[in-house]
Amino acid sequence: MSTDRRLDGLTSWHADWRGLRVAVLGLSVTGFSVADTLAELGADVIVLSESAAEEYERLLPVIGVPLELTPLSSVPAALVDFAPEVVIASPGFAPSHPVIRWALEHDIALWGDVELAWRIRDKVVRADGTPAEWVLITGTNGKTTTTQLTASLLVEGGLRAAPCGNIGIPVLDAVRDPGGFDVLVVELSSHQLWYLGRSSAAGELFPYSSVCLNLADDHLVWHGSAQAYRDAKAVVYRNTRVACVYNKADEATRRMVEDADVIEGARAVGFDLGVPGPSDLGIVEGLLVDRAFHGDRARSALELTTMADLESAGLSAPHIVQNILAASALARSLDVAPEAIQSALQKFRLDAHRIQVIARHAGITWVDDSKATNPHAAASSLRAYPGAVWVVGGDLKGVDIADLVADVGSTARAAVVIGVERAAVVTAFRRHAPAVPLFEVDAGETGLVMNRVVEIAAGIVDDEGTVLLAPAAASFDQFTSYADRGRRFAEAVREWIDRGSADDTAGSPPAV
């Protein structure tokens, strides 16, 4: 049997996977979940990685999978000798990576972990004998919050639901959970979607509902261009069966839905912060309402919650409200009652480092939005806190920050610039927001970056003002993660408070 014919038949956990030669690239949590799954299926597996956590390196021999720790800047001989029928890559492997190019040039099937999970999704089935439904979520920003929200709403509505995917829980782990689920809420990065965009007919997903929350330039180095990034994001809508949820305030998401090949009968459902039309969710006089999944939607709407309730729960920032509306649309597509949505939102709280107020002291509000790792996310934060002292900078990932500074940077009280790419940030301010005072923290002060940031910000913030960490950049130039960056910011704020704020504001440097 030809390789293509065999792969076309591998669309079930119960298919014959024995002896299939699969090379797994990367040994992170995703790579291990792939290797573990394939070993259980009886495939012939090899893992190639440049590094490995001790835990995974120890477990691979236990499940009978060999590991090649080898440089991957070129195609290793071990991979060529193995002659894989399928290569399954961790999401970090870009299309331009030498090993990915080698697989494409040799017409070797190239999958991501999500395609494998879809193919074997019937390992655990529901009472009616069918696998869990999949709801797909992507966007430049807000993916994780919306994934958590959607799962919470579904559970409150009586469904067994699990958030998984890019949120940190491999889809394969959710698919193989012996308890089973009614719905998997799958967060997808643009990297994962690029791999799905290459799926053959046998590997294509057919999601129940899907959403792209927003689109702005990000990961351009990985994808190679803004158009390639947009094309990857658009894959989320392909083959959607019930509801394609899109952001009415983001024209790109509407065009994605219009261009998508969906299953006949799938509906386009919009959301924004305005008054909704008959197939939308939105806001009317302080009420979040549904006019999409309602029998009398032409003339009335169903109340989901109130802005007052969201404010008391710390969920009233405009971009968070958009996430809530998107999650509500996905939940309503699965018949979750409005009362369940209201109840779930009363209990829901944002994760750390997502527009999190970490302290209020001496008239200053300190806000940690370290998760704002691109300009689009930072713009949302700045709109929520106009007039803040803005802590900005880091690894810009090939994205030009000029538009962000021109659009909303001028609303900042001042900017404290961090990171190795400070020059680009300073140049953008001088060109597009020259009236905003600028202060730099030298990259050489890596261990004390946030202590210096807090001292500077405290010295320039107005009474009753806000200091906002919304870097618009990745963290890996100076920190181990966005969480590490936010944690160090919070620690520096607490240290400043403990020392006594009045004594620590005199030494702020002059503006640059």
In short:
This protein is 36% helix and 18% strand.
What does this structure look like?
This protein is an alpha/beta fold. Helix content is 36%, strand content 18%. It is built from 20 helices and 20 strands. It has helices at residues 3-8, 29-41, 54-62, 77-82, 98-105, 113-119, 143-156, 171-175, 190-196, 220-223, 226-234, 251-259, 307-312, 318-333, 338-347, 375-384, 402-407, 422-432, 449-460, 482-499, and strands spanning 21-25, 44-49, 67-69, 86-89, 109-111, 133-138, 161-165, 183-187, 209-212, 243-247, 267-271, 280-284, 287-290, 302-306, 356-361, 364-368, 389-392, 414-417, 438-440, 466-469. The mean pLDDT is 93.
CATH topology-level fold name of the largest domain: UDP-N-acetylmuramoyl-L-alanine:D-glutamate ligase
- The chain-level mean pLDDT equals 93
CATH superfamily of the largest domain: Mur-like, catalytic domain
What's the structural domain tally?
Answer: 3
Tally of alpha and pi helices: 20
The biggest beta sheet reads:
9 strands, mixed
Question: What would you call the structural class?
Answer: alpha/beta
Roughly what percent helix? Answer: 25-40%
Give the CATH class of the largest domain. Answer: Alpha Beta
Query: What is the overall silhouette?
Result: globular
Number of DSSP strands? 20
Strand order of the largest sheet: 7-8-6-9-10-11-12-13-14
Over the alpha carbons, how many angstroms does the gyration radius reach? 24 Å
- If classified by CATH, what would the architecture of the largest domain be? 3-Layer(aba) Sandwich
Which percent band covers the strand fraction? 15-25%
Distance between the termini: 69 Å
Poorly predicted tracts of residues: none
